[in-house]
UniProtKB/TrEMBL annotation:
<dbReference type="GO" id="GO:0009982">
    <property type="term" value="F:pseudouridine synthase activity"/>
</dbReference>
<dbReference type="InterPro" id="IPR050188">
    <property type="entry name" value="RluA_PseudoU_synthase"/>
</dbReference>
<feature type="domain" description="Pseudouridine synthase RsuA/RluA-like">
    <location>
        <begin position="101"/>
        <end position="248"/>
    </location>
</feature>
<dbReference type="GO" id="GO:0140098">
    <property type="term" value="F:catalytic activity, acting on RNA"/>
</dbReference>
<dbReference type="InterPro" id="IPR006145">
    <property type="entry name" value="PsdUridine_synth_RsuA/RluA"/>
</dbReference>
<dbReference type="GO" id="GO:0000455">
    <property type="term" value="P:enzyme-directed rRNA pseudouridine synthesis"/>
</dbReference>
<dbReference type="InterPro" id="IPR020103">
    <property type="entry name" value="PsdUridine_synth_cat_dom_sf"/>
</dbReference>
<dbReference type="GO" id="GO:0003723">
    <property type="term" value="F:RNA binding"/>
</dbReference>
<protein>
    <recommendedName>
        <fullName>RNA pseudouridylate synthase</fullName>
    </recommendedName>
</protein>
<dbReference type="Pfam" id="PF00849">
    <property type="entry name" value="PseudoU_synth_2"/>
</dbReference>
Amino acid sequence: MRRRTPAPPAPLPQRHGIDPVRLRLPATGPWATVRDHLVERLPVPASLIDGMLDERAIIGADGPVTPDTPFTPGGYVWYHRDLPDEVPVPFPITIVHRDDNVVVVDKPHFLAMAPRGRHVAETALARLRRDLRLPELSPAHRLDRLTAGLAMFVVRREHRGAYQGLFQDRLVRKEYEAIAPYDPALELPRTVCSRIVKERGDLAAREVAGPPNSRSRIELAERRDGLGRYRLLPVTGRTHQLRLHMSSLGVPILADPLYPRVLPDPAPDDFSRPLQLLARTLEFTDPISGAALSLTSTRTLEAWPAGAPGRHPS
């Protein structure tokens, strides 16, 4: 199999902690100029592309792209997209651990991990790149925007594979905490296994028939006033896995807007109902230093404040 040549480094710096957009030109095509291709490919008016070309805002490997720059099959161009209007997430990020290789933070609810869709500059990655002045910082794994707790980022590009591999190879012990209704008829602890699929364009994932591709250990830590504080230990990492497994058991996590049913989107500035799910613990052996690390979130879930009395399961 022929290996694809890596893309050259971006000739544009980051802006607000956001990388420039990179487009790879097709290997073949009828276009005489790069402009012709961009006008056909990009979903914006031709006048906007012409304005960017006039401002020398679209850059190729050899410098700014002009209206007459010839189309180069397989070449690359870069540009900065206009940032969407975003409501600032009014909660800080707390650094739990930082060394030469990784940064582990305690992420607040409502803050996306990395730029995607309508969340771009108001993301943990963009904030940390700006605040810590670490332009190569990248996420080692995923954590839902609505989930709070521990998230790991890799400092240098050359180490991304090593730390991302920890999560891909299931070498990280992850423990979550969730608040959900207490059902005395639900026998816990138990391990939930199911096949989860999430279609492009669908907000919620769903369980379907077929070989399982997800596995979660569900334990009840405490109960009080009709609620349970649950300890969740995912073995796999499917999208929305813990949220879907809790819902399938009949005890959906409090304030979940997708499970068991999709609710209307709240206003962008409504931070009043955080999902009661917290990434509490990360434990792993650092693949670079060999050090064993055990990190714990200091956050609490508002439905179960610190020190609130509860009964342990009998």
